[in-house]
Q: What sequence folds into this?
């Protein structure tokens, strides 16, 4: 796991080539310009984060538009308290949804990827492409009969429904990521296991699975993040009382008399888990982005 | 024959749950959705009378739906142009070794980890349409206030509250959120070009511009294509960002097929909702199927 997928995908810049180097003065100007630009964009990117942060600490009178860009006059935590009490139950539900959804679809994806790359059958490529297409479909194109199907199957609204949906619609991307990952595992390893008389499951358990940690990291991050951030399925299959955190947040922020401090604090709270994943596992996060597309 | 089945049979068996699930939840439901879109089920009461393509022709004749397609086009153009521009620019700046590259990369990418719903909370406020001249200055919020206070008051605008171009304002947070992703793609593309290739071109007397024009850009084409496909198909499906920024789902100014489908669903007009879903599916398929065929062919080579 020392070399992450991102390191392979984005190696760090190679040494500057001396050939055709402009004179020193111009190079310094270029470099200054470059860092000025980079910093300018950092500021632009961070503006919304700044606004969220300062507004979340403002009191009701301080949230006046004329002071919108200024720091709070006094740092209040009432907004955070309100956001926390509103969101806490939904946060708990979301963890109950996202963790099993990520684990189950990752496990299935790993087996699929293994079969499709190392235990291929006639037509495997066609099957793979058909599975892959499931990643791109607009869920709007299945939503109407899907609501019917889920109620016919008797899956309760809220977390149980969403669990099924995130597992099923996560399969394509999990399969893709694992298939691409296992392509880099030498086939000789599989052949050797086969020679020793190991069947398909044995080979998986003793050869492939132990090598799969980096693939699992990428897939789990990916599934965790996209299920956590999902709003489309959540809005069709849950309500404020049994919905995940995105639904709770949209209720908190969507009223006519919006409490700005609370809704901004809520947005920050709802983003903490994915941001922690991103900060701790950023490299693998990008690896996941590279290996596929985006659900939602 | 039997030996071959014995050889790949177990694999097929392991894959069976996924094949069944995807078969039911993707393909069968698409078919079912198509069937519903041909019925006259416009109320919660079940109805299975087939009316052919009437729902489609009605939708296409509906000025609201036409407007939602127009919005979708503008949104997609802004989203694509913005993410490609910034993504390429950042990757290009960071391609040459830079101190603190990891830091810049991390900052540019971080919005990607946040949900559209969470970022929509702040963008709703930033894209407030109140302007200084209308409100005597004190009530202005968001970007308009920022523009005013840095002397760019003339650049204030209605943002999303404009029936023709308002949807372009939704592109702003979308670009904010995903430019970093496109940057990561391009960066990987740049780094995938062997240094020897650049050296060889330089020794042959290539100017920097010619180097890019003839050596680097052509190598980036596949990356560019993936970025266009991914951003393009996201734009077609974009729903949560609009819902987060615009309080009323049925707002004409920023209506797109995805939000209109939701409005129809809420109104129990299942046939129309299904038809809109089908239209979105066709649009996505037009983009994605050639791409999937292209990549699976490229892989075989």
A:
């Amino acid at each position: 796991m020392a070399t992450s997928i991102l390191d392979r995908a984005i190696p760090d810049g190679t040494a500057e080539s001396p050939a055709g180097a402009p004179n020193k003065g111009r190079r310094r100007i270029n470099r200054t310009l470059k860092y000025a630009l980079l910093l300018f964009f950092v500021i632009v990117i961070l503006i919304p984060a700044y606004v969220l942060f300062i507004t979340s600490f403002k009191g009701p009178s301080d949230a006046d538009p004329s002071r919108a860009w200024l720091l709070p006059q006094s740092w209040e935590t009432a907004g955070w308290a309100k956001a926390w009490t509103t969101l806490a139950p939904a946060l708990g539900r979301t963890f109950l949804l996202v963790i099993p959804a990520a684990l189950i679809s990752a496990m299935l994806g790993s087996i699929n990827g293994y079969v499709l790359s190392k235990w291929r059958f006639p037509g495997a490529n066609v099957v793979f492409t058909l599975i892959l297409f499931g990643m791109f479909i607009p869920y709007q194109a299945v939503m109407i009969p899907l609501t019917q199907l889920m109620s016919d199957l008797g899956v309760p609204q809220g977390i149980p429904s969403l669990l099924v949906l995130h597992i099923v619609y996560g399969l394509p991307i999990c399969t893709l990521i694992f298939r691409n990952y296992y392509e880099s595992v030498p086939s000789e390893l599989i052949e050797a296991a086969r020679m020793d008389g190991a069947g398909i499951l044995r080979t998986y358990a003793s050869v492939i699975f132990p090598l799969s940690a980096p693939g699992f990291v990428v897939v789990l991050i990916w599934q965790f993040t996209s299920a956590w951030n999902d709003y489309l399925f959540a809005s069709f299959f849950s309500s404020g009382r049994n919905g995940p955190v995105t639904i709770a947040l949209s209720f908190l922020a969507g009223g006519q008399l919006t409490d700005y401090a609370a809704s901004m604090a809520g947005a920050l709270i709802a983003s903490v888990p994915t941001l922690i994943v991103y900060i701790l596992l950023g490299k693998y996060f990008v690896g996941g982005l590279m290996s596929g597309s985006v659900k939602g | 024959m039997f030996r071959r089945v014995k050889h790949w049979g177990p694999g097929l068996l392991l894959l069976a749950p996924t094949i069944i699930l995807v078969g039911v939840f993707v393909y069968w439901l698409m078919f079912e959705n198509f069937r519903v879109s041909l019925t006259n089920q416009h109320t919660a009461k079940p109805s299975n009378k087939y009316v052919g393509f009437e729902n489609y022709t009605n939708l296409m004749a509906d000025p609201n739906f036409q407007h939602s397609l127009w919005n979708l086009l503008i949104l997609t153009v802004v989203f694509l142009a913005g993410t490609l521009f910034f993504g390429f620019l950042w990757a290009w700046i960071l391609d040459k070794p830079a101190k603190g590259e990891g830091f810049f990369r991390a900052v540019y990418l971080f919005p990607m980890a946040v949900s559209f719903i969470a970022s929509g909370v702040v963008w709703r406020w930033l894209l407030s349409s109140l302007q200084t001249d209308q409100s005597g200055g004190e009530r202005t919020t968001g970007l308009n206030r920022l523009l005013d206070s840095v002397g760019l008051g003339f650049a204030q605008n209605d943002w999303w509250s404009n029936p023709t171009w308002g949807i372009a304002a939704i592109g702003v947070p979308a670009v904010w959120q995903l430019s970093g992703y496109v940057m990561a793609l391009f960066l990987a593309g740049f780094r995938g070009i062997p240094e020897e290739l650049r050296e060889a071109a330089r020794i042959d007397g290539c100017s920097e511009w010619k180097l890019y024009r003839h050596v680097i850009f052509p190598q980036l084409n596949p990356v560019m294509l993936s970025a266009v496909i991914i951003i393009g198909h996201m734009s077609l499906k974009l729903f949560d960002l609009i819902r987060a920024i615009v309080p009323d789902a049925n707002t004409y100014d920023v209506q797109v097929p995805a939000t209109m489908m939701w409005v129809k669903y809420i109104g129990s007009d299942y046939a129309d909702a299904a038809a809109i879903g089908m239209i979105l599916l066709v649009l996505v398929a037009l983009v994605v199927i050639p791409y999937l065929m292209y990549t699976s062919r490229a892989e075989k080579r």
Notes: Residues 1-8, 14-20 of chain A have pLDDT under 50 and may be disordered.
